């Protein structure tokens, strides 16, 4: 059994095309019914304002599977510690023996989450998409733009965040990478000319409404990953011509389908893995509006962990 620290993992794995292919293949396996993915195990540690999530999946025929433990302790910054941490344990799918522990401190989760946004855009946005609006200015907001550039020729980024100073700082970093970046005071202004909208916030109340959606836009919502978070008003979902979730069950409990809790959705719910595996064309015209809700799946964790270990050991 090998133990790998974050520095070694970062040197081996990045937001690149090889990692994107690995994660996309995991989604496709899930869509074909070739993956076993149990529900998320989630535990609150209320006295410390913390939570721990455990995600896993087995892709049939794969040599390895992973179990990810992801703690989030949100008072940690007061102690000079990061809010998020975690590790991935990688097992042999033949013997169950532990092959490696990837002490990535949440790095691989960041990578696979960014890549999932790119994969959603690859299958749902217009191919000529050039302009993205990003709501949020944290690490994942920045990484979503980086990953999007793998699949679309992004040239302009419109930013909105509750803290304008954070949005301005992100805009400067994006300009240093050759992108045109604009900071906006209001969400509607940020989204007005967007080909793609990415919501990457910890919001507990909706930020994006149907009235904010330009014709033909694709929306990737990835901030709502627990029962108390929401970024999209229900009107966004009903306005969309196609709604896709990485996992319908998870979207209903943790994601944007909570807006319809206890009642039937007035639209069809697609799953991203099935869209990929079936080659489904949900964008029927340039005017089609698509929405993808990403809550984070165990199959992504197994896919990125297997990819990382292959890169680390050279196999």
Structure report:
- This is Ornithine cyclodeaminase.
- GO terms for molecular function: ornithine cyclodeaminase activity.
- InterPro entries: NAD(P)-bd_dom_sf (IPR036291), ODC_Mu_crystall (IPR003462), ODC_N (IPR023401).
- The chain is an alpha/beta fold and 315 residues long.
- The protein folds into 2 domains: 2-108 and 299-313, ornithine cyclodeaminase, domain 1 (2-Layer Sandwich), CATH 3.30.1780; 119-297, NAD(P)-binding Rossmann-like Domain (Rossmann fold).
- It contains 10 helices and 15 strands.
- It has helices at 6-12, 17-31, 107-124, 139-148, 164-176, 187-191, 234-239, 248-253, 272-278, 298-313; strands at 2-5, 35-36, 41-45, 50-59, 64-73, 87-92, 98-103, 131-135, 156-160, 180-183, 196-199, 218-221, 242-245, 269-271, 290-293.
- Strands 10-9-8-11-12-15-13-14 form an 8-stranded parallel sheet. Strands 1, 2, 3, 4, 5, 6 and 7 form a 7-stranded mixed sheet that branches.
- Helix 3 (107-124) packs across helix 10.
- It is globular, with a radius of gyration of 19 Å.
- The chain starts with a strand and ends with a helix.
- The relative contact order is 0.18.
- The mean pLDDT is 95.
């Amino acid at each position: 059994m090998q133990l790998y620290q974050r520095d070694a993992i970062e040197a081996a794995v990045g937001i690149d095309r090889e990692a994107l292919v690995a994660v996309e293949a995991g989604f496709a396996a899930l869509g074909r019914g070739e993956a076993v993915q149990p529900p998320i195990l989630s535990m609150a540690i209320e006295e410390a304002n913390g939570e721990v999530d455990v995600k896993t999946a087995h892709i049939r025929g794969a040599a390895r599977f992973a179990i990810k433990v992801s703690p989030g302790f949100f008072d940690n910054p007061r102690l000079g510690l990061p809010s998020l941490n975690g590790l991935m344990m990688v097992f042999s799918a033949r013997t169950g023996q532990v092959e490696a522990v990837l002490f990535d401190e949440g790095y691989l989760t960041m990578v696979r989450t960014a890549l999932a946004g790119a994969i959603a855009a690859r299958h749902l946005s217009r191919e000529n998409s050039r302009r993205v609006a990003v709501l949020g200015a944290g690490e994942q907001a920045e990484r979503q733009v980086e990953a999007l550039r793998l699949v679309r020729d992004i040239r302009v980024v419109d930013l909105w965040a509750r803290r304008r100073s954070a949005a301005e700082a992100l805009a400067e970093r994006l300009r240093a990478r050759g992108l045109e970046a604009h900071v906006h005071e209001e969400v509607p202004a940020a989204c007005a000319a967007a080909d793609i909208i990415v919501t990457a916030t910890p919001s507990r109340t909706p930020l994006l409404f149907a009235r904010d959606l330009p014709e033909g836009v694709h929306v990737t919502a990835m901030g709502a990953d627990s029962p108390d978070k929401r970024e999209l008003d229900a009107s966004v979902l009903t306005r969309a011509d196609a709604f896709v979730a990485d996992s319908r069950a998870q979207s209903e409990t943790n994601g944007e389908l909570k807006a319809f809790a206890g009642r039937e959705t007035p639209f069809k719910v697609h799953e991203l893995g099935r869209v990929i595996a079936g080659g489904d064309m949900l964008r029927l015209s340039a005017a089609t509006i698509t929405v993808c809700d990403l809550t984070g799946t165990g199959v992504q964790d197994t896919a990125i962990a297997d990819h990382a270990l292959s890169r680390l050991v050279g196999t």
